[in-house]
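A favour between colleagues. Tell me how you read the following sequence-structure pair.

===
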Amino acid sequence: MTDDGAEAGGPTRARRLLAAAGIGVLAALAAWHRTARFPDVTRSDLAFQWTASRLWSAGRDPYALIGPGREFPWITGLVYPGTMLPAVWPLAALPLWAAVCAFAGLVAAACAYAVTASGWHRLAVVLSWPFLFAVTSPQWSPLLTAAALLPALAGAVVIKPTIGLAVAAYRPDRRWLLGAVLGGGALVLLATLRLPHWVEGWRVALATPPSPQSGQPSSGGLYDAIVFQPGGALALLALLRWRRPEARLAAVLACVPQTMGGYELVPLLALVPATLLEALALAALSWGVAVGVALGNPYATLAEGFRTGGLWSVWCAFVPATALILRRPNVGALPAWGERMVAALPVPGWLRGVAA
């Protein structure tokens, strides 16, 4: 595997770049179309991140200014860590609609380039509903998917540490960890130089009760883990194939707190398939999440909608992905320290697996 994640026999870098550029343009156009249909882009997740980054670059504290009843109202406090602020800063000078389109195009292009390293089959993720939702919202999950494969982008895991933990479980090799430490460390340093107390601000924001629009008495009501949804614990069966990177990704992704909007499924749908048929099947099944959520409309609260999304995510994404993983042998490479640790554990051979 080369530095950009390419594998021998895979598509050439030029073709991957061309495909990524095309996907990026289409994603930007999709984001623009959604913005044109729903002009109030101030309601998107990127809007309050964009606002926060502008405040941060101006020397103001976004954690004190964004949230229910504050100068910049939002349904919650600024629940992203300070590492998000310098990451979004390059887009802060753009008008919000342009920042939304640029962000969508960039994260989609990065994802498309990364997933084509081993072949074209994983590009089927762009046909999934979570990918479409993620680029039109827009969200970080396509970039975090790319970060799982490209050490140069590994630092992005500190922007959204919960999903970032699942991404880190996918590829804990030395080169990737070095990229994560250097890139993530740079974001931490930049955030801290401008806003030294951001960690405390983030902690308070996570504990800030959301506005009544969410329908929850505490911010915890908007975040949950897949394993706590009906049937969600089935995703932990992937750990029977723990040597495989996609198995570790699925299990950890099922355990970390997240909103259940569906867009966090992108890494799962992109990184689990081993063939085109598997990739197309997962992409097609993912539309069941959209249908299931739509059938329940209207929802009394935002949290109720998220819970419905979580239920459908279990059965239309996590369970099928886990079934694919369990059909494969427990074979995979680990860093040397990992192999030593496994060798010292008193576990049966079938669970220990085979080093690749």
Observations:
- Residues 147 and 154 are 5 Å apart (CA to CA).
